[in-house]
Design brief:
This protein is α+β, with helices and mostly antiparallel strands and about 150 residues long. It has a single domain, classed as Aminopeptidase (3-Layer(aba) Sandwich). Helix content is about 25%, strand content about 35%. A seven-stranded mixed beta sheet has the order 1-2-3-4-5-7-6, with helices on both faces.
């Protein structure tokens, strides 16, 4: 079981910011061997969903209101610590993110840019492919929508 905190950038403590950046770097840069600019200037406009287990950040997403990233609300930087994936925390953090979008932005349509190998995971959360595959930071992605 994880405890999920929802915070604006301004509400994050220095430790929480460090935790989420460390987790994102651990997975997206080191594990996926992808050199890219994770600190992209968008965190200040996101709601941050941090999943904690025993006071350690093990899951994370950031969400945006409609019109900021896509025309629809969006969820990005979806990440679960490698050693915790067997617990299915990806589903917990995504379900909480969908709820947060409904609660904070009063909308239900959500668009994401998903890594191709995670299509089935997102299909299980009622996200479905739109458009063609494309490369983002050298990794195959596809747009997906949940209504």
């Amino acid at each position: 079981m994880i405890e999920i905190k929802v915070k604006t950038f301004q509400e994050l403590t220095t430790q929480e910011l460090y935790d989420l950046l460390q987790l994102r770097s651990e997975v997206f840069v080191v594990e996926q061997d992808c050199v890219y600019q994770d600190i992209d200037g968008k965190d200040q406009n996101a709601l941050h969903m941090i999943g904690y287990k025993n006071e350690n950040a093990v899951a994370y997403t950031r969400i945006f209101k409609p019109g900021y990233y896509f025309d629809e609300a969006s969820i990005g930087r979806v990440v679960v610590k490698d050693s915790e994936r067997q617990h299915k925390y990806g589903y917990d953090i995504m379900k909480a993110s969908v709820e947060a979008i409904k609660n904070h932005y009063d909308v239900s349509t959500i668009k994401i840019s998903a890594q191709i190998y995670l299509k089935r995971f997102y299909n299980n959360l009622e996200f479905f492919e739109v458009g063609e595959e494309y490369l983002e930071d050298g990794i195959p992605h596809i747009g997906m929508i949940r209504v």
